[in-house]
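queue> pop job 88
queue> type: inverse folding (structure -> sequence)
queue> payload:
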């Protein structure tokens, strides 16, 4: 069975608002390397639309050179989009319809390499369903003072153990966790 890794940037107070992120070249390099090792990216509709608007060419072509490897990688990776409102998707994407929980389970059972999960609300659902195998949180050393918050509304606590840590020059810390259960 393929592994599913939830990856997100977060502030010290748990804010995951994308506008609060201050990713630099080092963060983009780590994200590019992680995404390049995956066989697909699983997203909810809101995150898919946000990522498509930002990272799909020609929009991504306006970003600095140090962001271009990530732009190319996210453009090329297959995307699996959970939505009950979209009729279709493109940008190298497949729509996950019907029972989305079963669709994610089925996706994990397909042959292939690891999958990545991004976003907020839909990602919280997937975590709550017990379908996430690994977590990667890049924690930035500042307080946003607002939400949305990491895994807000999760139906049960997560007992995680760290498996890897990367201290970044900016003061951010990227830590990988696995569930103890």
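queue> result:
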């Amino acid at each position: 069975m393929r592994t599913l890794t939830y990856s997100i940037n977060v502030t010290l107070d748990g804010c995951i608002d994308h506008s609060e992120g201050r990713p630099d070249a080092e963060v983009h390099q780590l994200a590019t390397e992680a995404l390049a090792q995956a066989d697909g990216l699983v997203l909810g509709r809101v995150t898919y639309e946000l990522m498509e608007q930002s990272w799909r060419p020609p929009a991504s072509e306006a970003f600095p050179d140090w962001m271009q490897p990530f732009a190319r990688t996210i453009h090329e990776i297959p995307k699996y989009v959970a939505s009950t409102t979209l009729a279709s998707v493109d940008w190298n994407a497949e729509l996950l319809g019907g029972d989305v929980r079963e669709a994610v389970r089925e996706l994990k059972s397909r042959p292939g390499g690891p999958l990545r999960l991004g976003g907020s609300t839909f990602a919280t659902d997937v975590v709550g369903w017990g379908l996430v195998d690994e977590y990667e949180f890049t924690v930035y050393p500042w307080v946003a003072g607002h939400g949305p918050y990491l895994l807000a509304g999760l139906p049960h606590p997560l007992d995680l153990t760290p498996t890897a840590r990367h201290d970044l020059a900016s003061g951010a810390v990227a830590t990988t966790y696995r569930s103890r259960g």
